[in-house]
Amino acid sequence: MKLAVIGGGWAGLAAAVQATAAGHQATVFEASRDWGGRARTLHADRTLDNGQHILLGAYAATLALMQQVGVDPAACLLRTPLDLRLPNGHGLRLPRLPAPWDAALGIAAARGWSVRDKWHLLRITDRWRRAGFSCAPETTVSRLCQDVSDPVYRTLMAPLCLAALNTSPERASARVFLRVLHDALLGAPGSSHMLLPAVGLGALFPEPALAWLQTRGATVQAGARVTALARTAGCWNIGGAAFDHVILACPPTEAARLVAEALPLLPVAAQPPAGNWLARTRALRFEAITTVYLQTAGTRLARPLLALDSDSERPAQFVFDRGQLGGPAGLLALVASASHGPADLLEQQARHQARQQLGVTDVHSARTITEKRATFACTAGLERPPVHIAPGLSACGDYVDGPYPATLEGAVRSAHSAVAQIGCA
Q1: Beta pairing partners, 129
Q2: Model confidence pTM above 0.85
Q3: Distance of CA 132 to the CA centre of its chain
């Protein structure tokens, strides 16, 4: 079938790769000149990623897709056991052991927690295990963790929730949080490992995917914003070209605009479910992520990734040593998930964090990047829109209904689901 994919982020490119591999003829329309969406490399006065990403060993679909387009994950990703320790060594680090022994021994050996803290955490995680790592849809992460001690909550649960769901624990979905914990802690060996990109995000997947698609006859168009969808004789028309199926892999606000304009063109029976999809998409709320790049005089941190003590005046939860991840020596990236406030204030606060918690004195700002709609707010009880919209029209992206929050794995899995619907009424 002739397939149009609108959006050239990870979800859109994943959909195009899967569809092409299945024998369909794909055309990808990307509105900007850059590929990769919210996980891309920026080329300006210096080459930087628009943000930082932590993959997990449990991200089987993402790792398989990278290999499919010729990327060797072992060469491009630094694999380490889960390590969420602060600069002073306090916090959780898992040893290289099979599950669940890695979590049990990691908790037992954690510094900065009392014996009582650790015992309570072990009992609570065992309770979650016996409940199948599931809970009521309306449960928040803060409610889920109400029996967790303050040191464990502050140094583990809260930053982990922000990193995984980019939503404050007081609002975040405990059901989605538990799914991430389940797949990481009880999956195949290595599922809990952190995979840190050691190359630019563009080289990690978008650029190899483009090359893979072009060598197999797919059409890719950058700087090609789709302004409207037309429907004639059971086909979708984009810029004068007819397509059997369209996958909306653009941001949800743009997808909602296209669906709203196309709604009257759909068969009468298809309009109510498409209207429901539109209502759910329009109801989504979004969270920002700010990355503050700081250039130091050759600072090398103890580990490529460190957790940071964070609060309203110390917004960054993590710092990446880009010098240990294929970047220039001394370049640090401080990440504030669910960030609020003006960029200059966040930059000032992050610089203070670097001085106070990392002991860095000779530091100046390299660049501050805020993705204002980095992710949807993964709140408790949220009803996300489904993949299917109408006959011949699907959506993919990390915001569509699925088990994961706004992650690369969620985006890739949604692409698989959208491609599976090609040809379905």
Answers
A1: none
A2: yes
A3: 24
Angle CA 351–352–357, to nearest 5: 105
Residues 6+ apart with CB under 8 A from 56: 183, 184, 191, 192, 193, 194, 195, 409
The per-residue pLDDT of the chain, averaged, comes to 94
> How far apart are alpha carbons 183 and 47 in whole angstroms?
33
- What is d(CA 372, CA 338) in angstroms, rounded to the nearest whole number? 9
Q: Please state the φ and ψ torsions of residue 280, each to the nearest 5 degrees.
A: -65, -40
Amino acid at 182: H
Amino acid identity of residue 243, one-letter, is: F
CA-CA distance, 78 to 328, in Å (whole number)?
16
The encoded tokens of residue 289 equal 């992520």
Report how far residue 318's alpha carbon sits from residue 396's, in angstroms, rounded to the nearest whole number.
29
Contact between 220 and 82 (Cβ < 8 Å): no
Are the CB atoms for 339 and 289 separated by under 8 Å?
A: yes
Which residue reads 């959909």 in tokens? 15
**What average pLDDT does the segment 91-113 reach?**
92
Work out the pLDDT band at 260, boundaries 50, 70, 90. Answer: very high
pLDDT tens figures, 163-210: 999 999 999 999 999 999 999 888 888 999 999 999 999 999 999 999
Please measure the distance between the N-terminal and C-terminal CA atoms of the chain and give it in whole angstroms.
14
On whether the CB atoms of residues 336 and 317 are closer than 8 A, the answer is: yes
User: b/e string for 8-17 if b means 16 or more Cβ within 10 A?
Assistant: bbbbbbbbbb
Q: Are 337 and 287 in contact (CB under 8 A)?
A: yes
**CA pair distance 141, 173, nearest whole angstrom:** 6
For 182, the token pair is: 């389940």
The Cα diameter of the chain in Å comes to 69
